[in-house]
Input
Amino acid sequence: MTTQEKWAPLEQSSQDREKIWSKNRTFAGDVWYRFRHKPTAIAGFIIIVLLLLFAFAGPLFSPYSYSDQDLSIVNVPPLMKVYRLPDGSHAFISPALTLVGADSGGSLTGTLPTVRDEADKRMTIFDANGTEVALYYGGAKYVVADEATGNIYPSSYLWNRDHVLGTDALGRDILTRLMYGTRVSLLVAFVAVLVNLAIGIVYGGISGYLGGTVDAVMMRVVEIISTIPLTLYVILIMQIFGQQLKSIIIALGCVYWVSMAQVVRGQVLSLKQQEFVLAARTIGSSTGTILSRHLIPNAMGPILVTATMLIPSAIFMEAFLGYMGIGLKPPLASLGTMCNDANANLRTSPHELLIPAAVICLIMFAFNFVGDGLRDALDPKLKK
Output
């Protein structure tokens, strides 16, 4: 092929034009295009949607309430090791050394009546529909056996059909409490972040735009607040307002705006010398107009990313308060209070702690993935 043939123009066709032409996208469309092409961000977004449905729509389909107690079925796990009794029913050994009856499908029938306790033989006799069965608790492994012969009844595993995730120390359904706990945690996080957005945007915007002495004084206030651990602020505010949902929202809203204000101030400082701001000043626009119509909209990328990252931080703080016993008062449920309630039965019922802890981790990972995806999608330097 000669040099002239190499530089010969290609034939014009619709197929060739499709290779070099693409549809123009708006800024929002471009952000969504880059966001949905990040697998971790989409996974995080789907998890958040599922958690919202689980928290707000799930309790509508649950036959239990977060406060319903049944002391006859305390600390029953999701997967039960049961012993087959002579009458064909099954029995599960609870951590309280009682026998909880169950049918072959996994439905619980309540605690078996106690006949007598023979402490010298390290066993307790229960009545299973007219047949006396013995719970031996003297050995390393507790078993259910025939009192007369000592033969151990055959054992197997059954899924708890009535309480999918088991019950806690008061016989409350863990799945239902997990729904309400997730709802409280998400509600606290979203409301606290909205309050932080409002305070942080106004405070940081005014400080960055006015500058000078006003900026110096306002930033010194932020630095003073930042020198004291935020956890201490939250605990003090919780002690003042009491242990209720409103108090947690007020505590987080009064403290977490500091980082948002710093982000907004930095963005406003970098934007206020741009030509479009000078043009707005020239035509006589007020400070409020310039901030609300020009500076803040152009800084929404970093603001949204910061807000997304604040949500898991607020959820962790709420869970920490509940775990320390200064969160919501019983019987209200939150992920932190569920972890706190599980401490007393950690050795015998570890699932009561692992389940809410896993949900906390899942929420934090989901929001971090979404925040990471938004950061990349809103960064024009990463545009391909």
Summary: The chain has a mean pLDDT of 83.
